[in-house]
Design goal:
mainly beta; seven-stranded mixed sheet; four-stranded antiparallel sheet; 0% helix
Length: 119
């Protein structure tokens, strides 16, 4: 199972970006998809995740500004980021967890996409 993220870039404070992450492979089912981020010198942290049923979970720092969504038909997860702040600057990684076939669990990461918010 492979994940391909896109959509990062440079934006001014208050601006918006939309990240996308497409999952590819064979005979897999996805349970939870999510976005994490890692700023320089800091640990990777959860930004938001979403279950197959559409239940979402957000870090307190992004609630009300970021929205996670998924298109199950396209095996794609999105992160709409509004009202961006300099402290949102980080490399953003997508993540997917599920099963290959019926019984083999997987957890895979995308390659990371850089989001830079200028002040």
């Amino acid at each position: 199972v492979q994940l391909q993220a896109s959509g990062g870039g440079l934006v001014q404070t208050g601006g918006s970006l939309r990240l996308s992450c497409a999952v590819s492979g064979h005979m897999f089912t996805i349970a939870t998809m999510g976005w994490y981020r890692q700023a320089p010198g800091q640990q990777r942290e959860l930004v938001a995740d979403i279950t197959g049923g559409g239940s979402t979970n957000y870090a307190d720092s992004v609630k009300g500004r970021f929205t996670i969504s998924r298109d199950n038909a396209k095996n794609t997860v999105y992160l709409q980021m509004n009202s961006l702040k300099p402290e949102d600057t980080a490399v953003y990684y997508c993540n997917a967890e599920g099963n290959i076939g019926l019984l083999k669990p997987f957890r895979s990461w995308g390659q990371g996409t850089l989001v830079t918010v200028s002040s």
